Input
Amino acid sequence: MESASVPLPGASGGHAAAEAHHHGPPEANQSSRIDKQTLGILLFIVSEVMLFGSFFASYFFLRVVVHPSAWPPHPFELPVAVAGMNTAILVSSSFTIHYALEAIRKGNKQGMKLGLVLTWLLGLTFLFVQINEYVHLGFSSRTESFGTIFYSLTGLHGAHVFIGLTLLTAATIRAFRGHFDKDHDKHLGIEIPGIYWHFVDIMWIIVFFTVYIL
Amino acid sequence: MVKYNEAAVFKWVLIFAVAVGSAIGLTLLAGGLVGALYALVLAIIGCVYAYRWTREWWDNARDRPGGPDHRP
Output
């Protein structure tokens, strides 16, 4: 604290004066390899991985220890084809958000808008298909531990898709208002939701394999 | 400036898609147990890779500003 208010030896003119008037803590160190926004979303994603990990641990415990004989328990069946189609939709949306980012990196604002709108529509379609699936499944979250963990795991992911869609909505509105440009610092508003959206996509691929296929 | 960006994460989407896609194919062809064991092997390989990456990252970061070996 003290050192922040003491002028540095050899410091000249205005800089020394600014140092002399600085009474707060020293400036936080800025990494030369990663900006703070990207670091923030990556650390957040690490915490999210742990959250999903706890749900997967519960899932495998119930499946292997509690219900080892049949999974899903008779007479329930999961709509694998519909979920597979939904998986394709979500994976496609990762390509479209990547296209939007690549477009703005090259200064192509129309491409960025197209990519964002397509991603938003694909994400919304995924969510609607999943809600429709819930309606027609024939069991609820109260139906044995199977129903509870099924709705918990897929619902947790659905909530993340909803949050991702909210971020994408903001990014799309900002894109149409001309807030983004090709410089890295001027399209972080798409970069950060894009990283989050890729994470949501990766988690769904794992959820789909674990819950519907395995 | 930025090494860890959206493009790097997108690459991981592709890696996961291919890995899980192969696990899905094996599960459908050879059954759930084989698919589960294969997925477990993939997960272990992923964990080893992640551990080695974090060690490498930490070794590179020790003498940077904020690191324990940094000398201003």
